[in-house]
Amino acid sequence: MAYSQGQQLGSYQIIRTTLSGIVICIALSAILATLIGIRSQPPVGIEIIAIIIGAFVLCLPLFFGAVFGRLTGLLTGGIGPLVGLAVLLLIFGIRATNTLFPFIQYSTLFSDCRWSFYPGLALAGFISGYAPLKMKGRYNLRRSLGFSFLGILVALTAIFTIFAIIPNTIFSDGSIIETAIGVAILYNLCNLIILPILLLIYHNSGD
Fold it and tell me: How far is CA 198 from the centre of its chain?
């Protein structure tokens, strides 16, 4: 069932759509872990597919926010990638050692300011939810892209501000500004390509 932006979703619909986003993140992360773990040096084609899947995971909160509203975008962005990365580590551990990684290994998802990525993605999904997806019965792609771009910029500003304020080893070489600019460009390019594709698929799935 398709929902138009601005339609009030009940608690059940919010839970259902949010769980759908989280499940998709988990599924894509599992595929990503399987592809990367095929061998120590995967073929170029596999690496390209892995990059595309990773880009889809990053753009999912923007899509769910634009389609289902701010709360769904917020929860999908904050929970989906985190659980997906945990599943990715789980599969890596099983494939590498035939055993589960020790629990302490999962702390790397939060250490060294990495925790900032999850509220950052949640913020991006939340801001994307401000775009009215439908106006007068037609999809307003320009407005959806505009708010998703704004969400990305605000989220990345918040993330890299945290990295700049809190001491960490990731940007100890002082390359934070160059990295932030590069990530912003790549993320917005991915969004420019992937979000219209997801909206088109959703639109053609039936209103």
Answer: 13
Query: Residue 91 has which token pair?
Result: 């599969």
Q: How many domains does the chain have?
A: 1
The Cα 73–Cα 86 span in angstroms is 20
| Residues contacting 5, CB < 8 A, separation 6+ | 66, 67, 69, 129, 131, 132, 133, 134
Residues 6+ away with beta carbon under 8 Å from 197:
none
What residues have CB less than 8 Å from 157, skipping those under 6 apart?
none
pTM over 0.85: no
Structure token digits, residue 14: 């919010």
Domain that includes residue 77, residue range: 11-204
In a domain, 192, yes or no: yes
- Provide the residue type at 127 as one letter: I
Contacts of 176 (CB under 8 A, 6+ apart): 160, 163, 164
Least confident of 17-21, 41-45, 192-196: 41-45
Which residue blocks in the chain are alpha helix, DSSP H? 11-36, 44-68, 70-97, 117-128, 141-165, 176-204
